[in-house]
Design the sequence.
């Protein structure tokens, strides 16, 4: 929103103050410039190009000056399935109000509707993207903002589909309030630092809603990830903060609310996990604090692999999950403390809000299922209930230390 | 009228009925008598279609029994011990049977009034005494003016006054030309009504004929003694 | 057919006033009310209801149904002496019992839910499945009860058999499946396991509910067989179909037996 205002103020200043050196170039059928490339050619830095509605098929447009490009009524820039629509090679470029379609599928080049290549302080806002290979692609850039864009793709196969917003070796980037659907990965982060992903909705993507690797000190918050082929993957990273996101309906054997792989010293707080095959899958991760999250009706709320240590789970609500916690080992070096478990059936005689009997979130049946998947078909049968009850009374096979000693009697609000 | 031809029935190796030939003439009162386990009940059940697997043939009013249920509209049946759904009222029971028989005309409600059942109409069956249930059962048997009445131990459980009422009713209906078959394993107060006695023992008919010919045959004083002497094997 | 409906009408009148049916209704009502007010959470309520429909309802239906036939023996005999065919009597007795039971279940469970419908806003469809499954369990296990009581003159034997059938379908059978799956876990026997589960009406009912409620877990299993079955409407359609077969089969078998039987 702020950016929108900024752009219009800039544009307005440019328009009324003829004294300023900057020019306004208008492109359109009835205008002086019929083609965008003509306007790009004659423009100089700090000029504004206004593009009137229409369809422009001009191959690859290269922006190598600090221009502000504004579309009126979403003019269509068509890459004809061959070209990269716009390549930005200058700093301080603002692009807004365009509709970019059909960036060319290529197995050699990552053709994008808009590519930012080694630039600073650019803004891509309020655009529409449809049927592109890659939509927005940032490489080796910093200080840029991608916001309020609507990005839709045609899901076909992983090979012939690119990412919605793709960042590679970037720094200080803000990805905000975008809507992304039908790409390979909705948002892709690789070697990104100190960046923020917030307020986005990423759904129905082929692979990950967010694919996040080697990106230290980033955070993502207030996003919605749903119906993605594999959920969200966060890998090989330190100091990630994941807050207030919603992870919903990510179904599949390899589909996760969040997949954590080799993550250290990170925080997962106040997120909402609803009906995912696995809420959080944790592998090789250490010192991750998982607190104040809601895990509701997931297949497995948490799958904790044995190579993870010192992770801390506290004040989460576990409600109606098929399995609360599953693990692949009888050893456990993680801590569960003061969570609310809807399956807890203990009592609270001293009325301090904490159950007097510890809760064991790993059921015998979840161990059986872990080793022998077809047994899943017996889920919630009376026989399995009897097995679990027996194991509860005489724990023999479930990890002894994976236990919540202070289970909350009341759901955390 | 009921015609039974060479009726044989066995449960496994047990022959319950052995070659029964019997003709219950129209308008007659027949008394089927015999000890417990003699085959009386099986015979009645066969006529009523409760027993389905047997050899031989049964005709009721000229209609051969072959699994259909229609012939039973001509039969009124009073079982030895009746029971009805306990949460229904007496009125419900009467309505139900009327409904089932699709018959609401030509009702014979004499027994309902004579037995004073009008006052019991709103009571549920579970609150009735055994005798009252028997009265309901008797009233139902006569209700539809059937041409055949089959009464299984009808006076068992009835007080003497009610027995008398029932007896009078039987006489009256017989006067109106109805065929009546009743049974008993002991001698009952109805025996003097019998115009024809069928004595059945171990699945066979030992005697069939009027009361006085049985008495003549055995040389005994009354039916009870005659029956006893038949059972003792004095007469073959 | 006409006389079936007439018998049905009076049987319903009788059963709806029966203390047993009233007792069932009060039990369902009290249990559902209690579990809602105690937990206040839709998932937990649904899981408790699942136990009701998969364990309690089959037990009630099969025991009550068996006892019902034995207790009404004299009356059934009386009905048979009326000019009504046997199919109408059997059908009338069956539906006359089943409908009040279903009503007591729907009303007993439904009223507390309707009162607290706001907490179930996200689970309406699961609830519908719960009701459908519960209704099928009544239909199926009452049909079994009638079959058992028709086949066995001995009350004690019939009742014993009923309880055995209940125990077999609710617990023993699943134990056998688990045993098989563990024995042959190195072989691809998922299809077989799925087939075995579909044979048991209680498992089927359970699968219908978990298809809705635990779909995220079921879809987390990568086996193609499961995914194809659970992921599509096929699973639902097949389950309903098999449930219908389970209800028709014992009912017609019992009816066939009843029509030929010497009373």
Sequence:
């Amino acid at each position: 929103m702020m950016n929108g205002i900024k752009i219009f103020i800039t544009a307005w200043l440019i328009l009324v103050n003829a004294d300023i050196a900057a020019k306004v170039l208008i492109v359109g059928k009835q205008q002086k410039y019929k083609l965008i490339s003509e306007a790009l050619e004659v423009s100089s830095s700090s000029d504004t190009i206004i593009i009137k509605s229409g369809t422009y098929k001009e191959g690859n447009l290269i922006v190598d000056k600090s221009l502000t490009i504004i579309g009126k009524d979403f003019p269509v820039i068509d890459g004809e399935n061959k070209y990269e629509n716009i390549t930005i090679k200058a700093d301080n470029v603002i692009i807004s109000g365009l509709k970019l379609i059909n960036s060319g599928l290529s197995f050699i080049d990552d053709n994008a509707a808009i590519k930012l290549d080694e630039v600073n302080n650019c803004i891509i806002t309020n655009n529409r993207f449809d049927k592109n290979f890659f939509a927005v692609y940032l490489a080796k850039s910093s200080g840029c903002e991608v916001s309020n864009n609507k990005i839709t793709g045609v899901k076909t196969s992983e090979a012939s589909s690119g990412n919605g917003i793709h960042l590679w070796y970037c720094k200080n980037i803000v990805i905000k309030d975008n809507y992304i659907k039908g790409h390979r990965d909705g948002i892709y982060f690789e070697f990104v630092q100190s960046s923020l992903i917030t307020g986005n909705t990423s759904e129905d993507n082929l692979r990950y809603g967010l694919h996040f690797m080697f990106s230290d000190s980033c955070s993502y918050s207030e996003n919605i990830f749903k119906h993605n082929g594999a959920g969200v993957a966060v890998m090989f990273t330190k100091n990630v903060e994941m807050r207030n996101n919603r992870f919903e309906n990510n179904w599949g054997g390899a589909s996760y609310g969040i997949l954590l792989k080799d993550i250290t010293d990170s925080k997962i707080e106040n997120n909402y996990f609803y009906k995912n095959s696995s809420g959080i899958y944790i592998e090789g991760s250490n010192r991750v604090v998982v607190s104040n999250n809601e895990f509701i009706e997931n297949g497995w709320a948490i799958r904790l692999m044995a190579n993870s240590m010192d992770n801390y789970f506290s004040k989460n609500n576990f409600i109606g999950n098929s399995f609360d916690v599953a693990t692949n080992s009888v050893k456990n070096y993680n801590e569960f403390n003061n969570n609310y478990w809807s399956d807890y059936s203990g009592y609270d005689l001293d009325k301090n809000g904490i159950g007097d009997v510890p809760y064991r979130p790993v059921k015998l049946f979840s161990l059986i299922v872990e080793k022998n998947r077809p047994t899943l078909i017996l889920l919630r049968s009376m026989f399995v209930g009897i097995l679990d009850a027996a194991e509860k009374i005489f724990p023999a096979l479930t990890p002894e230390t994976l236990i919540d000693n202070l289970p909350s009697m009341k759901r955390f609000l | 009228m009921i015609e039974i031809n060479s009726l044989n029935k066995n449960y496994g190796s047990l022959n319950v009925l052995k070659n029964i030939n019997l003709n219950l003439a129209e308008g007659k009162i027949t008394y089927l008598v015999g000890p417990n386990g003699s085959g009386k009940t099986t015979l009645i059940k066969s006529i009523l279609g409760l027993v389905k697997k047997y050899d031989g043939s049964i005709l009721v009013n000229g209609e051969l029994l072959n699994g259909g249920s229609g012939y039973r509209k001509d039969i009124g049946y009073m079982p030895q011990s009746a029971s009805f759904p306990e949460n229904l009222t007496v009125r419900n029971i009467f309505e139900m049977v009327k409904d089932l028989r699709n018959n609401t005309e030509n009702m014979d409600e004499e027994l309902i009034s004579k037995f004073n059942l009008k006052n019991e109409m709103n009571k549920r069956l579970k609150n009735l005494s055994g005798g009252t249930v028997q009265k309901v059962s008797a009233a139902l048997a006569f209700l539809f003016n059937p041409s055949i009445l089959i009464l299984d131990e009808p006076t068992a459980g009835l007080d003497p006054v009610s027995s008398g009422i029932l007896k009078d009713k039987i006489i009256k209906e017989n006067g109106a030309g109805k065929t009546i078959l009743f049974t008993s394993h002991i001698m009952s107060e109805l025996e003097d009504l019998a115009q024809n006695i069928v004595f059945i023992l171990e699945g066979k008919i030992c005697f069939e004929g009027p009361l006085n010919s049985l008495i003549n045959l055995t040389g005994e004083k009354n039916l009870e003694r005659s029956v006893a002497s038949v059972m003792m094997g004095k007469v073959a | 057919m006409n006389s079936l409906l007439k018998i049905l009408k009076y049987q319903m009148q009788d059963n709806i006033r029966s203390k047993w049916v009233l007792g069932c209704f009060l039990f369902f009502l009290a249990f559902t009310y209690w579990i809602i007010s105690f937990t206040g959470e839709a998932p937990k309520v649904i899981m408790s209801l699942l136990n009701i429909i998969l364990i309690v309802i089959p037990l009630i239906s099969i025991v009550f149904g068996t006892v019902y036939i034995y207790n009404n023996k004299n009356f059934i005999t009386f009905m048979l002496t009326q000019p009504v065919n046997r199919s109408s009597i059997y059908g009338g007795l069956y539906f006359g019992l089943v409908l009040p039971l279903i009503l007591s279940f729907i009303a007993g469970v439904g009223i507390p839910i309707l009162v607290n419908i706001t907490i179930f806003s996200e689970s309406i469809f699961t609830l519908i499945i719960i009701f459908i499954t519960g209704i099928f369990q009544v239909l199926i296990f009452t049909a079994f009860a009638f079959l058992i009581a028709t086949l066995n003159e001995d009350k004690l034997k019939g009742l014993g058999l009923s309880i055995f059938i209940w125990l077999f379908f609710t617990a023993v059978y699943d134990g056998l499946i688990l045993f098989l799956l563990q024995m042959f876990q190195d072989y691809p026997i998922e299809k077989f396991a799925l087939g075995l589960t579909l044979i048991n009406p209680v498992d089927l009912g359970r699968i219908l509910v978990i298809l809705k409620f635990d779909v995220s877990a079921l879809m987390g299993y990568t086996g193609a067989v499961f995914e194809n079955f659970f992921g599509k409407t096929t699973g639902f359609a097949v389950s309903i179909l098999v449930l219908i077969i389970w209800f028709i089969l014992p009912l017609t078998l019992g009816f066939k037996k009843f029509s030929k039987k010497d009373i």
